[in-house]
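Now for one record.
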Amino acid sequence: MNGALFLLTVNFLIAQLFCAFFLVIARRSRVPAAGRWFAAAFAVASFSAIFEVAIRYADYDRFASFGAFSSLLGALLMIRVGLGRLYAVPSSVMTMTAILGASLTLNLLIYDLPRGTLYHSLGYQLPFIVAELISAAAIYRSGRRETADITLIALLLFTALHFVSKIYFAIIFVGGRTAETYLSSTYALVSQSLGAVLVVSTGLTLLAVIVVEIMDDAKASSEIDPLSGLFNRRGFNDRVNQILARPIAAYPHCVVLCDLDHFKTVNDTYGHAAGDEVIVALGRMLKEQAPPEAICARFGGEEFAVFLPSTGETTGYLFAQGLRTTFSSLVFAGLPEHLRLTASFGVCVLASATVPISDAIDRADGALYDAKKGGRNRVNRARHPTAISFEEWQARA
């Protein structure tokens, strides 16, 4: 077995391994169809190695050469379909069919042309170049610019450049006058070596993109309250801290806490299913009425929070009053139609970066407690910290 045939065997085994990897990982992905398309692509690509080996040992060069070409091109187009599923940039069935049909026809037409000529090399490599470029374009059009996405774009463009270079080197080094002698040439050894590297690189990068997507989904799921659809406390704190960490933060910010009035009575009287409907309705109302940049969360039980970036106390207070009025008019599934529920609110402002979010939440919670004591169905502002005298300040210093 010469070097080129050895590398063809390696490429076949690598493609089969990636096929298995993608089938396994597709089960965990949010877009399982993408993983299945990638698995199918590597399975089909592995046939290219089989056909190229057949060229060496069989008597049907034309069929084997056509099979090697069509399986590799088909695999590249299948990767484009998978990328379309993964990046929400669907591929056109008509376009894919047209590219495949035109490429296969071209391959048949150039088969009898002398190898090592511009016409033969260009006609053979051009379809691969097009397939790589449309895949890179799909990712670019998606607008995603994470490290794995940029790496994949760069890799696809490099692979396209690799196919362009093969046009030149096939002419310069004349990698065999026939398909069989091609496999025995030094050019074939170099080409297959680089091909193996690109197969591994493409497979690993595609796996990385899907793994990152799975990890992002898992993180998002861990930060979302499943009943209300809002952030939980962890998700709330992470998002708020990202805003507060910005180099230029447009203070003040505002925190609004909300707690349902007599919610235990609702659960005890009408059942927890009815209580869940109330939680769902309040979560939906917060999403609808909060500004797009607001961060809404359910802290647990019947307690909710809204962070309003770049919002003063007066605006936050009016926002809370609007929530209170709207909520008190809602009708809930599982509850008597005449029954109306209420909620109490506490509002606190972060005037500067020296005020930690935990302190603002505590003060808003104190205002909420005062609203409960004051008769419920109220909005209270947090008390401002009591100013200390100059003498006390000197004593503390």
Observations:
- The radius of gyration is 32 Å.
- Residues 386-397 have pLDDT under 50 and may be disordered.
